[in-house]
Amino acid sequence: MISRKVCFIVSCxxxxxxxxxxxxxxxxxxxxxxxxxxxMGKKENGEYELRLTNQFVIPSTLGAPTQGGGDxxxxxxxxxxxxxxxxxxxxxxxxTSRSPYWEHLKIIIVSKEIAETKNxxxxxxxxxxxxxxxxRSIKVIxxxxxxxxxxxxxxxxxxxxxxxxxxxxxxxxxxxxxxEPVRVGQVHAYxxxxxxxxxxxxxxxxxxxxxxxxxxFHGYDNKMVGMLDGEETKGLNLLTGNAKEGAINIELDxxxxxxxxxxxxxxxxxxxxxxNNIHISVKVKVEGSIAETFGTENIIKKKTLDEVxxxxxxxxxxIINHTIKKAQTELNADIFGIGDMIKERHYDLWxxxxxxxxxxxxxxAKSTFHVxxxxxxxxxxxxxxxxxxxxxx
Length: 393
Known about the structure:
- By secondary structure, the chain is of the alpha/beta class.
- It has 13 helices and 14 strands.
- The protein has helices at 2-17, 85-92, 112-115, 120-130, 147-151, 161-170, 184-193, 230-240, 302-331, 338-345, 347-353, 363-366, 386-391, and strands at residues 29-42, 48-57, 75-82, 99-101, 107-111, 139-143, 182-183, 197-205, 208-218, 223-228, 246-252, 255-271, 279-293, 368-379.
- Strands 1, 2, 3, 4, 5, 6, 7, 8, 9 and 10 form a ten-stranded mixed β-sheet that branches. It has a four-stranded mixed β-sheet with strand order 11-12-13-14, with helices on both faces.
- Strand 12 (255-271) and strand 13 (279-293) form a beta hairpin.
- It is globular, with a radius of gyration of 26 Å.
């Protein structure tokens, strides 16, 4: 009886004694908030030499996280090279006195060279997808230069570059020329679906960054085939209905007028009677207001408003059609998700054309798009003729 009680007590004690076997004190953790991956070259054995740069936080320097400047950096960037991301991450642990801790990772930046190499982007993402410490909300970006350079920026109003970059990305809804942030979980779905996809693009600009445009990938080999600039990304967002805010400049009587996008809705319909010439009808409804004008024209007049709406309509159709043309003729990549729509609405046809949708026979490139934009002005605001007044002096 006594032995049973002893066994019971010992067994219960295991519940309290084994929970912290792998505990690491917070002072000993190396908090990683940003990672950048670059390709250093190709070895004789055919493997690629990769460089991983991690941004570690230095907690002792974060006295006031909202203030920039200071005598010392609040972060340190540590780089290591190798053929395998797993091996590099293990080597990284030997280069810092603190144990690398990935659960606060915010952004992953991949260089243009990696993105342009067949299947290498997918290989890089594999370790971030498999590691249970990685959150699926981590944001992924393609740098139009060395990825390490982006982590090296030192913004004047932030102590941690990775958090500064994340904040800029979160503000992307204010402009239609940037994509919404793409997260690791979404990238995982892209890699599994094997459809063409886009990843946000980033470049350095002075002491900060420029977050606009997109990197375009073919889904069947996960290779970047080109990039969209800001205007082309705006066309993509308008066509897909993902443009939440933004601005369009038009000319009214030789003066600049800025139309602010406030609500964008798109509707796509598909005619699949001829698989060699699929017709896609794109209807975009835009509502917005006049944010700024320097002209003398009375914009309250119906005639003037009609002219503004017509010019906005024409400009938006021009932007969208240019993006479509580039996707079909230069990139040959269905970045609009048309293939997914055909799969959902015309499954039997999709089974016939899916393997040659945007490569090979390329039914996507042979498709015909019809774009129609309906633009409305919600509010006119106030007219400021200052610019014209001073230009005439």
